[in-house]
Amino acid sequence: MGTTPHLSVLIPVYNEEENLADLGIEVREALASLDYEAVMVDDGSTDRSYSEIQKLAQADPRFKAVRLGTNFGQTAAMAAGIAHAKGRLIACLDSDLQNDARDIPKLIAKLD
Questions:
Q1: Global pTM?
Q2: What are the two backbone dihedrals, phi and then psi, of residue 29, each rounded to the nearest 5 degrees?
């Protein structure tokens, strides 16, 4: 991965500690062929979500941890993610595993 990734995937997180390990696996598998970063923004979670985000970031340098001090809502979390994103393209993904990360490469293929 170069210093400026092609893609930034923004993932707002609020109290999703039980999903984050699986989300990390899903993102890595789905985006394996892409130059990406995953910007995970903890929106003031009251569970161990930020700790789980930190584990992902420590295990894989493509994962970035951002933490908001209190719950500001998804729009503010997305704005914080955009502020930290370095990619030429930005895609959004929910942390509750309701979106399929495998759709992101399909979307990029349509753009190309």
A1: 0.94
A2: -70, -45
